[in-house]
Amino acid sequence: MTKITKRTVDAAFPRDKEFFVWDQALKGFGFRVYPSGRKVYLTQFRADGRLRRVNIGVHGTVTAEIARTEAMRVLSEVRLGENPASHRDRLKASPTVMAFSKRFLEEHVAVHCKASTYGEYERSIELFINPKLGSLRMTDVRRSDVVGFHQSMKSIPYQANRSLGVLSVMFTTAYTWGDLEEPLNPCWKVKRFKERKRERYLSPAELARLGKVLMEAHSEPEAANCIRLLLLTGCRLGEIQSLKWEYVDCEAGLLRLPDSKTGAKIIPIGAAVFDVLDSIERQAGNPFVITGRVKGQKLTDMQKPWRRLRARAGLDDVRIHDLRHSFASDALQLGQDLPMIGKLLGHTQVQTTARYAHLKTDAISAAANQVSAAIASSLLGNPDQSEGMEQTLD
């Protein structure tokens, strides 16, 4: 044993087998000499009844003085009852983002989320998260990595924000499961991209064009009926695609859905909906209202048929979900209040309904014209118009 300095480390020549040199002043501090000539500083201690070693650094990269200081820190932790080797082992055992994402989907998302949510999470992970961050260990992901990942998707801001949200849930789950020691989520305070909210609704003229196209859609009647039901009920696409005949309560005028995005819910429907349902021929052995090509199954793909139908109607910018927006907006213009519209749409909070139920441009323009005309009449000294405006405001 000798005092470890740069001179003593340089003077240690390699042998056929690796060997250790220990410091005479600081018990547990030493370095290992490999046959290749590589020399590594380390500390040795006993913890949990076992002899453990923790490497500090390679000689040349780390000086003897720095190694001694680090050894003193590690040995102090041991005296306080901690086990630095255990912490190192956990870091080495930390899964990669790709490996953890597989377990995350199987044990968290599949158990706690709906099938549609699982599909969204899986898509974000496989197409965006794993290609960028999959090779990194969960413990090695830093906020700078997350910021870089998010910024790389600036051309698709909606998907960037969704993928960032999925990644954040992954890290929260990893901490809950004990795969991460630090509670700090690297996604925390990463600024999301601004999202422009869509306000697309169908005008009466557009509805008329779409209705004509649906009447002429003889080659794909299932898709046409699906669109009709979406327009007349305000339901989500998945709710109509998964609608079974047993969910239709003709006597009460309701759709009794056992499951939806917000759980089980009841949807009131009007006579026009029953007219569509009555026109649909039931298939023996198929419980679904909107049937698919596979025997006994539902229609699973509505995006391609919808693109064809909307193109014929000249509505290329209309998404399927915009039909739900139109239902809410039409209800508002017909005098229904937000709580009632929320019940029709199956919302649990009025704030959610308010996002859908915007006034259409025509109605806003008409209101603005009425108010400005009344004020203009008052400015010209027309008392009759002024009284009419007061009565309207009252």
UniProtKB/TrEMBL annotation:
A single BP term in Gene Ontology: DNA recombination
Entry keyword set: DNA integration, DNA recombination, DNA-binding
Domain of life per record: Bacteria
Record-linked SUPFAM superfamilies: DNA breaking-rejoining enzymes (SSF56349)
Domain Core-binding (CB) as annotated: residue spans: 95-175
Domain Tyr recombinase: 197-369
GO molecular function, one term: DNA binding
Recorded family membership: Belongs to the 'phage' integrase family.
Protein name as catalogued: Tyrosine-type recombinase/integrase
